[in-house]
């Protein structure tokens, strides 16, 4: 399959923005074996594992050096463009209702794309749901 990688399109006068995510690895305070959990996190975030994850599943690496590895570039030719996107990324907005805001956006965008809901109606509905979520805190 052939495809390309490019920054997201922008609105007039805007700049592309990439949002950082992450592996979200953590250790529960209720863990019965926090040492083993830490060992796994150390394994999963090491360069060798990052390289394997990137090559085998296209899971972006958290270590810059992995993007320059010849084996990664061979198997994932878009690695340099992805590294640029990651380096330009910004943290997600902080909100105690981020999950509800995100859900309002993705459900209504999906509705506009899949069920014929007009974009204007979908965005209006999303805004209403976001406003309702913001009033809960």
Summarize the structure.
54% of the residues lie in helices and 0% in strands.
Strand tally:
0
- Helix/sheet category: mainly alpha
The main β sheet shows up as: none
Shape type? globular
Your description of this structure?
- The chain is mainly α.
- Among the domains are: 34-87, no CATH class; 98-134.
- Helices cover 54% and strands 0% of the residues.
- The protein contains seven helices and no strands.
- It has helices at 34-44, 47-57, 64-67, 70-75, 79-87, 98-114, 119-134.
- Helix 6 (98-114) runs antiparallel to helix 7 (119-134).
- The chain starts with 33 loop residues before the first helix and ends with a helix.
Task: Annotate the secondary structure layout.
Blueprint: H1 34-44, H2 47-57, H3 64-67, H4 70-75, H5 79-87, H6 98-114, H7 119-134
Helix pairs in contact: 6-7
Q: What descriptors fit this protein?
A:
137 residues, mainly alpha, 7 helices, globular
């Amino acid at each position: 399959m052939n495809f390309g990688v490019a920054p997201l399109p922008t609105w007039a006068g805007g700049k592309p923005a990439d949002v950082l995510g992450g592996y979200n690895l953590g250790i529960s305070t209720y863990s019965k074996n926090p040492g083993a959990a830490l060992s796994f996190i150390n394994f999963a975030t090491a360069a060798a594992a990052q390289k394997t994850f990137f090559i085998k599943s296209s899971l972006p690496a958290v270590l810059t050096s992995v993007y320059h590895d010849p084996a990664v570039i061979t198997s994932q030719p878009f690695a340099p463009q992805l590294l640029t996107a990651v380096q330009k990324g910004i943290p997600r907005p902080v909100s105690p209702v981020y999950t509800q805001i995100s859900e309002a956006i993705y459900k209504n965008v999906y509705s506009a794309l899949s069920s014929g809901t007009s974009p204007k109606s979908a965005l209006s509905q999303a805004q209403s749901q976001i406003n309702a979520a913001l009033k809960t805190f």
